Amino acid sequence: MKKKIAIALTTILWTATAAIASATYVGNMTSMKFHNQGCRWEQKMNESNRAYFDSRDQAVSYGYVPCKVCRP
C-alpha cells in the first residue's frame, strides 16, 4: 500500500513540475499582473503567489494584466 501511495505522489509531482516548466507566463495572484519568465518582477515573486499560464490570452481571460516592465 505504501508503495502505491509513493508512486501516486511521484506521478503527481512530475506532472506538476512539467506543467510549470512548459508555462510561458507567470502571474502574481496578489497584484493580478502577469510576466514573461525572467522578468525582474517575476524573479522577486513568492512561490505561493505564482500562477502559471501557457498563453497571454489565458492570463488575460483569468483577469490578469500585463506587466509594464517586460510587456508580455
Automatic annotation (TrEMBL):
Keywords: Activator, Signal. Residues 20-72 form the Ada DNA repair metal-binding domain. Pfam families: Ada_Zn_binding (PF02805). Residues 1-21 form the signal peptide. SUPFAM superfamilies: Ada DNA repair protein, N-terminal domain (N-Ada 10). The keyword Electron transport does not apply. This is Nuclease. InterPro entries: Ada-like_dom_sf, Ada_DNA_repair_Zn-bd.
